[in-house]
Structures are given as C-alpha cells and as structure tokens.
Amino acid sequence: MKHKGLVAAVASKLNQPESEVDRMLEATVEILKSQLVAGNVVSFQGFGSFEFKRKEERLSVHPATQVRTLIPPKQVVNFRQSTTLKVKLKDILRHE
C-alpha cells in the first residue's frame, strides 16, 4: 500500500476528508522521524517498534573472488514486529 492508498483507507474508515487525513498522516510521519533521529524507540502496541541503529564498519568477502571490501558504517531504521502481529501473520500464512 502506498501513501495515497493509506490516506484513502483511513479517510474511509474514519469518515473524514482525504485532505484532512493526509495532513494528519504527514504530521505523524514528521513526528516519527524526529523521534527516531533523537534516538527514541517508536512503538505501536500490537504492531511493532521502530528503532534507529548505527551499524559499524565491517569487512565483507566476495564469495566468488575472495576480494575483501571494507563496508563503511551506516545508519538504518530497524523494525521489530510485535508478538501479536507475528501470531496473526503466522495464522494467515497457515490458512493459505
């Protein structure tokens, strides 16, 4: 689902205009970004949590040529699903 689809789905569920839902979603995303950049974990009960992590530099070896390459450090957003979501997804996959 993309941004427009999410806005339309939320607007339909809440019986609100899409323009208002779009404005609220944009504000929510900005708050989430600022919290992650500040080093805070953002959690949604029943869904999961997002965390900003720094990966240290590491040595990588190409399996075919054995050439070693130093991979520089980088910052990533990590998502960890909640147990509730994990169970629901497992149930859905079992029934397919």
TrEMBL record:
<dbReference type="Pfam" id="PF00216">
    <property type="entry name" value="Bac_DNA_binding"/>
</dbReference>
<protein>
    <submittedName>
        <fullName>Integration host factor subunit alpha</fullName>
    </submittedName>
</protein>
<keyword id="KW-0238">DNA-binding</keyword>
<dbReference type="InterPro" id="IPR010992">
    <property type="entry name" value="IHF-like_DNA-bd_dom_sf"/>
</dbReference>
<dbReference type="InterPro" id="IPR000119">
    <property type="entry name" value="Hist_DNA-bd"/>
</dbReference>
<dbReference type="GO" id="GO:0003677">
    <property type="term" value="F:DNA binding"/>
</dbReference>
<dbReference type="GO" id="GO:0005829">
    <property type="term" value="C:cytosol"/>
</dbReference>
<dbReference type="GO" id="GO:0030527">
    <property type="term" value="F:structural constituent of chromatin"/>
</dbReference>
